[in-house]
Amino acid sequence: MNKNAKHIAAVSLGVMGAGFAATFPFAHAPWGFVLQSGFEAGLVGGLADWFAVTALFRHPLGIPIPHTALLPKNRGKVTNALVKAIQTNLLHKQSILDKMKEARVAERLVLRAKRELEREDAGERIARLLGGAIRALPREQIANALAGIVRESVRGVDARAALDRVGRLAVERGYEQPLLDYALSIGERFAAGDEMRRRMGAMALRSIEQMQLGGFMGFAVNAFAGFMNEDKLGGMLQDFLITFLYEMRRPDNAYRESALGAMRGAIRQLGDNERVLEEAERLKSRIADGGEWDGAIAGLVGSALDAAERRFMDPEYCRAEVVPYARDALERLEKTEWIARADEWIQHQAAAFVEKNHGVIGQLVKENAEKLDDDTLIAMMEENVGKDLQWIRVNGAVCGFAIGLVLGLVQWFAVGG
Q: Is the model's pTM score more than 0.90?
């Protein structure tokens, strides 16, 4: 397009020159005089505009005429003027901030998210997004970071105070009752075994045999022992023990209340129990030193992320659970002041960024302009504005021709008349 305009400008100048030369033989005639005046003025206008346009970029005909090749000679001034125009007029700070205020970024993001959730394939898209995000998480770094947090937290724990707090909370929440029931169930299973029955019978018989009783009482005990063996005596004791443990499950059992009271006292005094305190300190040291606990944390993190990945990569789950939840969350979000606050925060951050980096815009323009040599810069400007400059030459020739015709007519009538 620039070459076509340049060609038209050259043709217009050639036409004016040829017309001026062709009218010399007819200069004595009125019409020849007027035409010659028009072609003369068009030639002068075209040449003047050609000189002016060419002088912007280079020396006309290569002759170093003063005040020509203006752009190469004044690159620094042109660049600074361009930078100033961009920073002060085109992209000044307030215009950027005003545009950011009009953008309402947070509000538009929420609206865009709502439109995306209305799509038929929203579940599939969310599944791909969440599954890929979870899969890309650095598991080892997460596990190491979490293990470090755990170790640091455990080092600062006061074991005695922690045990006191655990004991107090356990009693406040009544944990001694399920704990006692669990102990009773273990005792019942242990007491119901055949081995336990034989052991209780053997122990009871040995105790009877070691009793030193005289008179009628001794005779009665020996007679009873003669009728009993380990199995029978053990069975009797076993039935008694199982019945006793079963009865302790009843809320109104007196032994149960006594046991619960003893357990409450022991739980409240966990921090004063030296054995428990020693074990707590040992556990604290093991966790703080890492090792096996770091491996356990890494395994826990891996298992949690695997489970999350399997769950969120399921499009049906995302469609049924995640999409409705996201829609509801966005609806609730729109009823709060979060969007306005988010936009205010974005504008504040944008203002701080623009304030800090506004000069970078001009600096970037200047650096890019300075990277170009004169020939490249001239070629770039001619490519972008050369078309309009060439039409200035055409207009100069045409306007000069028209003005020359008018002046020729005026001169003919003034002088010739």
A: no
